UniProtKB/TrEMBL annotation:
This is Uncharacterized protein. It comes from Mytilus coruscus.
């Protein structure tokens, strides 16, 4: 297929990789296949983004039918079939809910940033969704069932962005994606502190694949580092979360005894789990450690 070759990170996603991709450099290969898979999840593209025969990738319009943004439909003025994929982009509007007929289309990208959504909505029918962007909305809660009831979506989604929303709590299952390699999940610049839970008692030992993906909590106040609610020792965590990194630039979280367990890691692994810029991540509790950078505690 021209300059692209078929690749399938973790055996579940159908992607195409440019022959000049950096994912297959010696530097990545020496770390193992999980590093390559995580790289591919960011660099490789799905079939609708390259000129494959008989594949069509179209934008789709929306008609808003009431003044409060709760009633809308998607519109297309040309014929389409099962090999037609759609991107739905409607930003800087007043939508509060996804269009009621969205399930009738093969949607692969949704960008409804800068609208008035208070929740993600029912997206279980969007089995080919690859990218979901809902930045700058009013989302206050992401159910731990939002994605767990969508096994096909779990194996396809690569990019999930909920930046600058109103979240107050978050299940770790919406931060670390079990049985899947992703590119990025981002909750940065959330307007309120976020409490991290592990309602379903997710344990990385039960995952069929390694936990790989980039997670961004830049400028967010957390009650606890997401990895600390897994009930897994730091040594075991390194074994099951071999690639990807967490970004915590400007983040603040509790520096309790559970955090101290991570000080036994090699510095390179500690740096990966706590973000590249440790000097920008500080303790918010207990009081004697308030404002202390995590790097100072480690060293």
């Amino acid at each position: 297929m021209g300059s692209y070759t078929y690749r399938s990170p973790d055996g579940m996603k159908d992607l195409w990789c440019n022959e000049h991709s950096t994912c297959y450099t010696l530097d990545n290969s020496k770390h193992g296949f999980e590093y390559i898979n995580q790289c591919l999840s960011c660099e490789a593209v799905p079939e609708w983004e390259i000129p494959l025969p008989n594949i069509t990738y179209l934008s789709i319009d929306v008609e808003i039918r009431n003044a409060i943004g709760t009633e809308s439909v998607l519109l297309i003025n040309q014929e389409f079939n099962s090999t037609t994929y759609f991107r739905f982009v409607h930003s800087h509007g007043y939508l509060k809910q996804l269009p009621r007929n969205i399930y009738k289309f093969n949607i692969v990208l949704i960008d409804v940033s800068f609208n008035l959504f208070e929740d993600i909505g029912k997206i279980s029918c969007l089995q080919n969704l690859d990218t979901l962007k809902m930045n700058e909305n009013r989302i206050t809660f992401v159910s731990n069932k939002t994605f767990s009831e969508m096994p096909n979506l779990r194996t396809n989604i690569l990019h999930f962005y909920l930046n600058t929303n109103n979240l107050r709590q978050l299940d770790v299952g919406n931060v670390l994606v079990p049985n899947n390699t992703i590119c990025k999940v981002s909750y940065k610049n959330n307007k309120y502190p976020i409490k991290i839970f592990n309602i379903k008692n997710f344990n990385p030992k039960e995952s069929d694949t390694f936990l790989c993906g980039n997670i961004d909590f830049t400028n967010v106040r957390l009650n606890i580092h997401p990895y600390m609610v897994l009930g897994t020792s730091s040594v075991e965590l390194v074994r099951y979360a071999r690639c990807g990194k967490l970004e915590y630039r400007g983040a603040k979280y509790d520096c309790d005894c559970s955090a101290a367990e991570f000080f036994n890691l090699e510095y390179s692994e500690f740096n990966r789990f706590f973000g590249n810029l440790l000097t920008s991540s500080t303790c918010q509790d207990p009081e004697p450690l308030q404002g202390i950078h995590y790097k100072r505690l480690f060293l």
